[in-house]
Design a protein that fits this description.
With 670 residues, this protein is an alpha+beta fold. Among the domains are: 221 residues, Alpha/Beta hydrolase fold, catalytic domain (Rossmann fold); 39 residues, no CATH class. It has 13 helices and 36 strands. A hairpin with a 4-residue loop joins β19 and β20. The longest helix is centred in the last third of the chain and has 19 residues. It starts with a helix and ends with a helix.
């Protein structure tokens, strides 16, 4: 952000172009602490009139809600979380009032207090989510729905914001559970009192509203079904009608084939990303909830799935269409808006991806977030009338800007003739084959982005080339691309990763004798598969929260969630069915192939991981030890599966162990 803003200032005031930063190879490597710090602020949001910004700042003791006046440049705290609570998010209700969410920890004291639906949980510590309202000056704070929560579910249920109702000065829409399921309630922002206006079910996971604040879409996800039921209603109807069922991934609250984005112009209309039966890529449509008709595509994906558009908060019209292939690209059919989009691009340069985080009601003030491989991220204000960019805040002010490395896209061919690509990050100005880290993403139905990645940049700062292959089975590039990875663990997906590795070696980017494969979650499996299925290709491997035994993974999933559960059926489809091809799954399970390993292996796993159980790393450790292979196993106490929830201390341990391991095995000889 510092380099970005310096470039902006040069363009605006001097009409000059920014110069490239100094290369890092002759500089002292930055400390690990420079990469592991938590973001300085989060949930940044712009007031309707564009004059104020609210955000949350975390300290060692608590989370604090701030409001900044962009006119006077004054900032003040207006609310802090008490011990055991956490402020999760904040939104503007009006120019004078905010809505924010709090995560609370509570202990069920005794069985009787829980009601019949929560028996046998005495002494259990659980989390609940609540919604609060507060004045911009910090006065008039109130918990919404509190009275009803205590009466209906003894204070144990959670409350979620559905719609701020910008055209209703006194109310918002909430979802909450009672004896009739997850319903919708209209709550008063000053008293907190609420009235139930619509029924849902116990399977309801989300709602969608039209431009007039009417709840018109409901998403139900029955626990033991691998689908989301999209329910619709006309604004003047009471009941709900089934529109369609769409597939979903395990643990997901939306579908890769149909996603409601938000209100469209008019009653009973919402924007939706949809993948029609004969369509590979997601496209943007208006969904009419009265008729159940999906309108003609407003935007068709060209190289990748369509991304969420920029929408005018006043008219609900789309002002810019977006698509994320190797890079995000947003364009507008409105000539004036397109001119401003291109001006922002010119200001920020080609190394940055820009996202719209907020827009004033009059459309004149844009709250933008920008980041890129060498820009750790930050928020700024764009004044459309003045064509002026203004700094707001850096996300990682301690990030080592001058030591960050550029990322480029490198294309390669797979063994079956497909054209793929990878992000390649390396210090600028250093020639010749270099020690290299191959880093496949998790998921596997996920993807990498052109963004600031602290782990990638940390590795690059130590002199390694980092290669992130875009292998089949990932998300964002159509149904066929994702389906090409079903049942292909250790096979087609692994082949794409291997082909990327061989390409960077043949291209003179990577040193063939010093290549390590590193990954987390599915990427952790791919790392272990790399040193078992192709032991001559990699000098070492680091598996973070990785799967090691496919049959055992499916067995544990079945035992934990049931044979008919969504999660089990999703993983059956992703990995394969052991009732039909057990031998094939065992043939690509690294824990059963430990005798093939010739490279040292580092295993890192959190003790609180509920997605990939710590047992998977334990199985791999024992298998390698029995085979007499070099292995080191690190457990991160209290760490879950998602890195975003790890503490600074846990991330520091990960980076420290990674640095030591790679220095020993990629720097320790030919």
């Amino acid at each position: 952000m510092r380099r970005l803003l310096a470039a902006v200032a040069a363009l605006v005031t001097l009409g000059a172009t920014s110069s490239m930063p100094a290369t890092a190879q002759n500089q002292q490597a930055p400390t690990i602490a420079a990469f592991t710090a938590a973001p300085a602020l989060r949930s940044v949001t712009l007031s309707p009139n564009g004059q104020f910004v609210a955000y949350i700042r975390d300290t060692a003791e608590q989370q604090v809600l701030f409001v900044a006046d962009l006119t006077t440049n004054q900032t003040r705290p207006i609310q802090s979380a008490r011990a055991g609570n956490a402020i999760n998010w904040v939104r503007w209700k009006s120019d004078d009032r905010l809505i924010f969410g709090v995560q609370q920890e509570a202990v069920v004291a005794d069985r009787a207090s829980t009601g019949t639906r929560l028996n046998n949980v005495e002494g259990f510590t659980f989390r609940r989510w609540r919604v609060f309202s507060i004045g911009r000056d910090g006065t008039g704070g109130v918990e919404m729905f509190a009275e009803q929560q205590r009466r209906l579910v003894n204070g144990l249920g959670s409350t979620f914001l559905i719609d701020r109702l910008p055209n209703n000065p006194t109310s918002v829409l909430l979802s909450a559970i009672d004896n009739d399921g997850v319903g919708i309630w209209r709550a008063d922002i000053t008293t907190g009192r609420a009235e139930r206006i619509l029924d849902g079910s116990y399977d309801t996971i989300d709602y969608g509203t039209d431009g007039e604040g009417n709840p018109v879409v409901r998403m139900d996800a029955p626990e033991n079904e691998a689908a989301i039921r999209i329910m619709r209603r006309a604004p003047d109807q009471r009941g709900w009608t089934l529109y369609r069922e769409v597939r979903r991934a395990a643990g997901a609250t939306n579908s890769p084939d149909f996603q409601v984005l938000g209100p469209a112009p008019g009653a009973g209309r919402v924007y939706a990303l949809a993948r029609l039966d004969n369509q590979d890529l997601l496209s943007l449509h208006i969904f009419d909830t009265t008729t159940g008709q999906l309108g003609e595509a407003l935007q068709q994906g060209q190289q990748a799935d369509v991304d969420a558009p920029w929408v005018d908060p006043r008219t609900r019209e789309v002002i810019a269409h977006c698509e994320y292939a190797t890079r995000m690209r947003c364009t507008s059919q409105d000539r004036d808006t397109e001119r401003h989009l291109r001006a922002v691009e010119q200001f920020l340069g080609e190394d940055v991806t820009v996202y719209l985080s907020g827009i004033s009601v009059d459309g004149n003030v844009w709250l933008l977030y920008a980041d890129g491989p060498r820009e750790p991220g930050g928020f700024f204000i764009y004044d459309r009338a003045a064509a002026n960019v203004r700094s707001l805040a850096e996300l990682y002010p301690e990030a080592p800007i001058d030591s960050l490395s550029p990322t480029r896209v490198v294309e390669y061919a797979t063994r079956d003739g497909q054209r793929q690509w990878a992000y390649v990050t390396a210090q600028a100005g250093v020639e010749g084959p270099r020690p290299t880290v191959i880093m496949p993403h998790g998921g596997p139905e996920a993807r990498d982005y052109f963004e600031y990645d602290a782990y990638v940049q940390f590795l690059a700062s130590r002199g390694y080339v980092v290669v992130q292959p875009n292998f089949r089975g990932g998300d964002g590039f159509g149904r066929a691309f994702a389906d090409a990875g079903r049942g292909q663990w250790g096979q087609r997906m692994q082949h794409d990763i291997e082909d990327a590795t061989r390409h960077v070696i043949e291209a003179g980017i990577a040193d063939a004798q010093r290549v390590c494969i590193v990954g987390a979650s599915y990427g952790g499996y791919a790392a272990l598969a790399g040193v078992t299925l192709t032991p001559d290709l990699y000098r070492c491997a680091i598996s973070i929260s990785g799967v090691s035994d496919l049959v055992e993974t499916l067995r544990q999933e079945r035992l934990s969630n049931g044979r008919v559960s969504l999660s089990y059926h999703y993983w059956l489809r992703s990995i394969g069915d052991p009732r039909e091809n057990r031998d094939a799954l065992r043939a690509v399970s690294p824990a059963l192939l430990a005798d093939r390993v010739t490279a040292p292996v580092l295993l890192i796993h959190g003790t609180a991981d509920e997605v990939v159980l710590p047992r998977q790393s334990e199985l791999m450790q024992r298998a390698l030890e029995r085979a007499g292979k070099p292995v080191r196993h690190i457990t991160l106490e209290g760490a879950g599966h998602a890195w975003a929830a790890w503490t600074v201390e846990q991330r520091t341990q990960l980076f420290t162990e990674t640095e030591s391991f790679l220095a020993q095995h990629l720097r320790g000889g030919n």
